[in-house]
């Protein structure tokens, strides 16, 4: 196309066009165009990568900004200490938590502040310097005494204290190396942290406005989409009825065909099979408008008729276990009302007694449920990448596969109400730990939480199931931790009532499961 335009232009000017020259010109133009396209794509990739990099850097600097403000320390010093701590084996973010806790104690605990000042340390200076000077004082003490003070004043474990003491020369060298690198690069991390904080807030404002726009559009579209959804739902329901009746009819025809073959081979049972097939077809054909709640008149539907029970309505679900009154035990009275509301919301969905949920929660957040991380997060559910709600971060201990304890920093979910937390907890269990649903004992419930989808474990504690069972017994002494019961030395009437109760639960479960299959 371009060569034709150039040729026409040259002709108009009175020039002749040499074929060889024209070919070279075209090849040169094609090569230049190709290189331009490649360059444009490369620049586009570079720009995209730059945007991602800036966004990630902004998030990191925003986190550094908040950490430095909480610790009352410069971003440069905080980053240098964290860098050095990781070099001597501490978990990432751990020293930042320790420094933040130290500043909190200096502001809120006059006793700890006085103790530190009594050691000759100026608590008004940068808290990074306070921490380094305090650690030097503790390192000069006997290991037992120093570790005790480190735990009381800094919340530091014995392992962490000894790790820092044994490697303090390497730790201080790493601090100096990082500070030297910061100085040589000419980057002021405090200014960078402030800039990252402003950038992160700008992104949050954009995200909030986009979310508001999305919500407004969604509200406007709910009406039209609701009517479309009803049409689809009605169509699917009708198709289900039609295919259900087709399946029943096919089963009856199949039975009749088998009866006919038996007759042809001389089997006397063939005639009886054909007769039953005809009766099945008659019952199916009399089902009024394929109604899913149709029930055959008494005497028509034989107990042995295959598939015909699907024409009867599913039995009602058994009463939810959480509706029963809770025992007034000492352990139960320690539970706050918010925790009970959380447990009831979860128990309703998981079809287990409330005591099972509370027993598991006690194991997670203490007998009073006062160690929950995140608002109304009594299950201590961590916030993954897909969580869009509020979060709270904290360093917690975990166990590896060998049973060894270690510390790591994690983000946990927060909820507006206890009921919202309970429902989210139940949704999590249903999705990832289905073996815990409908458990008959607290021990089985806890074991189900350790046998999740894809080998997941709700908790890494190897004695998790035993602890949950003990908690349930403390909440309600009448709860059985196994599926057996003792009949020696008991009242015969009580034994009979116990047996009858267990039989009722078994029957109710069977009805519930069959109801789920028939729907």
Overall 3D geometry? Answer: flat
For the CA atoms, what is the radius of gyration?
A: 36 Å
Tell me about the biggest sheet? 2 strands, antiparallel
Q: What level of helicity do the residues show?
A: 55-70%
By DSSP, the count of extended strands is 2
Task: State the domain count.
Answer: 4
Q: What's the overall average pLDDT, rounded?
A: 76
Report the total helices: 18
- Euclidean distance between termini CA atoms: 67 Å
Compressed to H and E, one letter per element, the order equals HHHHHHHHHHHHHHEEHHHH
Q: Which structural category fits the helices and strands? A: mainly alpha
For the largest sheet, list the strands in their spatial order: 1-2
Parts with pLDDT < 50 across at least 5 consecutive residues: 286-319, 483-490, 509-519
What features would you describe in this structure?
- The chain has 519 residues and is mainly alpha-helical.
- The protein has four domains: 2-50; 72-187, no CATH class; 195-311, no CATH class; 321-484, no CATH class.
- The protein is built from 18 helices and two strands.
- The chain has helices spanning 2-12, 19-71, 75-87, 94-108, 110-118, 127-139, 143-154, 158-166, 168-185, 189-264, 269-285, 330-333, 337-350, 354-365, 418-432, 442-449, 464-475, 492-518, and strands at residues 391-399, 405-413.
- Strands 1-2 form a two-stranded antiparallel sheet.
- A hairpin with a 5-residue loop joins strand 1 (391-399) and strand 2 (405-413).
- The longest helix is centred in the middle third of the chain and has 76 residues, at 189-264.
- The chain starts with a helix and ends with a helix.
């Amino acid at each position: 196309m371009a060569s034709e335009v150039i040729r026409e232009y040259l002709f108009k000017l009175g020039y002749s066009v040499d074929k060889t020259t024209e070919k070279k010109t075209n090849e040169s133009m094609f090569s230049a165009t190709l290189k331009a396209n490649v360059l444009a794509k490369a620049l586009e990739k570079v720009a995209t990568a730059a945007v991602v990099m800036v966004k990630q850097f902004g998030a990191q600097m925003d986190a550094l900004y908040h950490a430095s403000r909480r610790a009352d320390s410069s971003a440069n010093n905080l980053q240098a200490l964290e860098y050095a701590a990781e070099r001597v084996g501490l978990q990432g973010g751990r020293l930042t938590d320790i420094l933040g806790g130290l500043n909190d104690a200096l502001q809120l605990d006059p006793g700890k502040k006085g103790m530190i000042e009594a050691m000759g340390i100026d608590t008004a200076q940068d808290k990074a310097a306070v921490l380094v000077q305090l650690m030097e004082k503790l390192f000069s003490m006997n290991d037992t005494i120093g570790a005790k003070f480190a735990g009381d004043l800094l919340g530091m474990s014995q392992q962490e204290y000894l790790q820092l003491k044994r490697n303090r020369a390497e730790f201080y060298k790493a601090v100096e190396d990082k500070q030297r690198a910061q100085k040589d690069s000419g980057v002021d991390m405090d200014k960078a942290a402030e800039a990252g904080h402003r950038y992160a807030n700008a992104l949050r404002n954009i995200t909030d406005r986009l979310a508001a726009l999305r919500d407004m559009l969604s509200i406007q579209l709910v009406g039209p989409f609701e009517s479309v959804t009803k049409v689809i739902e009605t169509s699917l329901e009708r198709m289900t009825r039609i295919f259900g009746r087709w399946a029943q009819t096919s089963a009856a025809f199949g039975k009749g065909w088998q009866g006919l073959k038996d007759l042809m081979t001389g089997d006397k049972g063939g005639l009886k099979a054909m007769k039953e097939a005809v009766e099945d077809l008659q019952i199916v054909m009399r089902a009024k408008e394929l109604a899913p709640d149709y029930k055959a008149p008494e005497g028509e539907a034989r107990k042995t008729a295959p598939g015909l029970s699907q024409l009867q309505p599913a039995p009602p679900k058994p009463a939810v276990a959480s509706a029963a009154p809770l025992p007034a035990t000492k352990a139960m009275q320690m539970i706050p009302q918010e925790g009970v509301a959380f447990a009831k919301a979860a128990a309703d969905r998981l079809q287990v007694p409330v005591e099972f949920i509370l027993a598991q929660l006690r194991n997670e957040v203490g007998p009073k449920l006062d160690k929950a991380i995140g608002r109304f997060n009594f299950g201590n559910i961590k916030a993954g990448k897909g969580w869009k709600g509020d979060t709270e971060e904290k360093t917690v201990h975990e166990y590896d596969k060998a049973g060894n304890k270690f510390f790591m920093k994690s983000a946990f979910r927060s909820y507006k109400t206890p009921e919202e937390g309970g429902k989210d907890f139940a949704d999590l269990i249903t999705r990832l730990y289905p073996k815990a649903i409908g458990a008959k004992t607290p021990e089985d419930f806890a074991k189900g939480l350790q046998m999740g989808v894809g080998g997941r474990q709700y908790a890494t504690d190897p004695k998790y199931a035993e602890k949950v069972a003990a908690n349930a017994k403390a909440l309600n002494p009448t709860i059985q931790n196994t599926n057996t019961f003792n009949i020696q030395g008991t009242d015969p009437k009580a034994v009979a009532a116990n047996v009858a109760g267990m039989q009722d639960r078994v029957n109710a479960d069977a009805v519930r499961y069959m109801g789920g299959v028939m729907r």
